[in-house]
Amino acid sequence: MPGWNKDNRLRHNREYRVVYRAGKSVANKDMVLYFAKNKQSSVRAGFSVSKKIGKSVVRNRVRRLIKEAFRLHINDIKPGYDLIFIARTGNKSLKYADVERAVLDVLKKAGLYIDSKE
Asked: How far apart are CA 1 and CA 54, in angstroms?
C-alpha cells in the first residue's frame, strides 16, 4: 500500500457524516477514533481539533502532530477504512511521543493496527 497522500483525506462534511453515522468509535484519554469500512483499498483519514483545545496555533500544532503520527504508521493500518481522529481537550501540551502513543492506542483498540514487527 502506498504511503499517505492528499487523495487519502476525508475532505467533505458528507464524508465525515458517513463515518460518524455508520462507523464505530474507540477512545482513550487523549483521542477519539471513529472508523468505518469504505469501498476502497486504501485508508482515508480526517483530523478534527476542537476550539476547546486552544487558539489556532495550538490547534494546528496538535493537528500536525496527529497527522505525522498517522503518516508514519499508515503502512501498518488495515486498508479499506475511513478514519477520523479527534483530539480531546487537555492535550495541547503533549509531546509528539504522547500523541503517537495515543494514535497507536486507539488504532489497536479498533483492531486496525497490524504490527509489522511481530
From this structure: 35
